[in-house]
Design goal:
This protein is an alpha/beta fold. The protein contains 17 helices and 11 strands. Helix 6 packs across helix 9 (204-216) and helix 8 packs across helix 9.
Length: 384
């Protein structure tokens, strides 16, 4: 049997009008599941083609890692002829995905109603910064802005007593892209059952607000409120990599077994038995600052290597505090084939990030490199 034909989305065609990170993360997942994703780019290309290190023009690292397995066509939708061409292409696709602001899509005649008139059963997937119907709906959204708006940046300040900070990765874009991918999969499943198209709308602000509040809604989960917002275990100032004699270590001493094993490992079982604040989850929940503060004091007494040996032997979750450079030689990633390194154009090598999943029906498309700008235009765009 042809391996490709067993992929879950084999035969599904996706018209990809997304750019930057949020939309391309979604459509790359669909490509991984076997969909043919046709990325429509303006003549200057997706702006992310210029982001990050590169060995060829318009093939920056950020673009490469969000657009593998796709095909690229160039259409200038500001020109009537190219817009008409796109409209003629629509009936041959199952899904249209865009992250263009809705008012711009209306001006182009590519809003939901106009597209549905051309292809009633198409799935119309709209990714925006903010959900429609609210006062922010016409605003442009960027990852940093969303992190600030949903309280994520402030949580760093609340925990440390310092300044607000951003997570140094595009977490809002990527989480929203993942959310959009599984929403699209659900819509495809429904269409297979009913034959009906539908519109799927996903917004960064609401997606990330749900992510943050899932942990931190706290007492405001109830009316009247039953206490402050914020999950105290995540907000204690001691929830951070712990200092050791010669560096730092990540340790999670979490459940009853972990705490008992930790005190046994350091030869202080009597101290554990004598202090109820360590012994049960209910009591620990009232004393996170104390118990993790005490943990910090103890961990400062030995080297990182000594702690790793001791804690691993006691089956307590721990890790060195890696730099991102350390991941290149990580034995787990190497053993599982996480990186795919191969020769590409001009004899140069590219390191690709391998599949996020392992399943016979969801084999990664990562063997297919990200497309050169417009490389598939002649093959995929109909001549008028």
């Amino acid at each position: 049997m042809n391996v490709h034909s067993t992929k879950a989305l084999a035969g599904i065609r996706v018209l990809d009008l997304t750019s930057v990170i949020m939309g391309p993360v979604c459509t790359q997942i669909l490509a991984d599941y076997g969909a043919q994703v046709v990325k429509v780019e303006p003549p200057e290309g997706d702006v992310m083609r210029h982001a990050g290190a590169k060995i060829a023009p318009q093939m920056g690292a950020m673009f490469l890692h969000a657009n593998e397995g796709k095909r690229s066509v160039v259409l200038d939708l500001k020109k009537e002829g190219d817009l008409v061409t796109l409209q003629k292409m629509l009936p041959s696709f199952d899904v249209l995905i865009h992250n263009v602001r809705p008012q711009a899509m209306r001006r182009l005649g590519l809003d939901e109603g106009s597209v549905r008139a051309l292809h009633p059963s198409i799935l119309y997937v709209e990714l925006t910064g903010y959900a429609q119907g609210g006062p922010y709906e016409q605003r442009a959204a960027f990852d940093d802005i969303i992190q600030a708006q949903v309280g994520l940046a402030d949580l760093f300040a609340r925990q440390s007593g310092g300044e607000p900070a951003y997570v140094p990765t595009l977490v809002a874009d990527r989480v929203t892209g993942l959310t959009a991918a599984h929403a699209t999969l659900a819509a495809l499943y429904r269409r297979r059952e009913t034959g009906e198209g539908e519109t799927v709308r996903i917004s960064m602000f609401e997606t990330m607000a749900a992510l943050v509040l899932g942990d931190h809604l706290g007492g405001a989960s109830f009316e009247p409120s039953q206490g402050p917002m914020g999950y105290s275990r995540l907000l204690t100032r001691h929830r951070r990599p712990y200092r050791t004699l010669d560096g730092h270590i990540a340790v999670v001493v979490y459940n009853d077994k972990h705490w008992r094993s930790f005190f046994e490992a350091i030869g202080q079982s009597d101290a554990f038995e004598a202090d109820p604040r360590f012994q049960t989850a209910a009591v620990r929940a009232e004393n996170y600052d104390f118990i993790y503060g005490r943990l910090a004091e103890i961990l400062a007494m030995r080297t990182t290597f000594e702690w790793l040996e001791l804690l691993e032997a006691a089956d307590i979750p721990c890790s060195p505090v890696n730099k991102v450079e350390d991941l290149l030689g990580d034995p787990q990633l190497r053993a599982t084939g996480f990186f795919d390194e191969r020769d590409v154009r001009d004899g140069r090598r590219v390191r690709r990030i391998a599949s996020r999943f392992r399943s016979p029906t969801a084999q990664s498309s990562r063997g297919i490199p990200a497309p050169v700008l417009g490389q598939d235009t002649a093959d995929l765009v109909p001549r008028l």
